[in-house]
Amino acid sequence: TIVGVYLEEDVIIARGARYFRGPKAYYDFTTHRSVMPNAVFRTIQEQRDIPVYIRAEEARTLSDREMWFRNAKVSTSDFYSMTYHIGASRAYVKDITIYEEELDPKTGRVTRGVRLSEQQFSARLVNTTFNVRSVPILYWPWLQGDLSDGNSALRTVRVGSDNKLGFGVDTEWHLFRLLGLIRPEGFKGGAELGFHEDGAVGGLNLEYLRDNFSGYAAAYGIVGGDDEDDFGDEREDISAPGDRSRVLWRHKQFLEDDWQLQFEFSWQSDRNFLEKLF
């Protein structure tokens, strides 16, 4: 009985729309595990109809649903020299698509049957870098998220002049991916970080909507800002703290008999904070 096979010269291991490709590989038929050096993994992100590539020094399939990569580069580019990519020393990807389970009468193993949902992959990346033309510009120790929403924690990067803080760089992030967490159903969060001539700014925001409650929370601040505010000819040189911040939380709770409980908490470091930065 053949339990495995070793292959060389342009090897392709395919399952549906996804495949591994590399110079050589070993595949175990009994456990459906494989190992492939210098591998390229490709799948289609159905929600946006774009390809996702993972190029790695080593790729392993751990089961029908689990994959592991060493020194991986994640991108949506067909080209080997990518304009943008995410690097990771280790990457673990799991197929979380819902399938109907079937029993193989020959082996007695439970196998995947008809697909019952859109194809989805969860991913966990360690020692991640965000790269532009192979130059790392940002580092984060770990990322975790759903590849159906894209593969990066970074949403946008803006470089330019702000009429309140001067020239600088602003970034926006997916909050749960940045924290290495799976986003709970009904929750959406973001993070902002910027560095300008007149100080560093940062903030977090969270929106949530569930069957019996909803709300919004945000926190923003600036460090190393000017010690004076200028709001025009009649309001010049107003003394201001260099470090400033604001916290806001609004919550609505749905109770029995059509009752509702609503409350809001708001705090800011000084009276001119909102006028200065918002």
From TrEMBL:
- TM spans, by residue? none
Q: Which GO terms describe its cellular component?
A: cell outer membrane; transporter complex
Q: Which PANTHER family match?
A: LPS-ASSEMBLY PROTEIN, LPS-ASSEMBLY PROTEIN LPTD
Name of the protein this chain belongs to: LptD C-terminal domain-containing protein
Q: Which organism is it from?
A: marine sediment metagenome
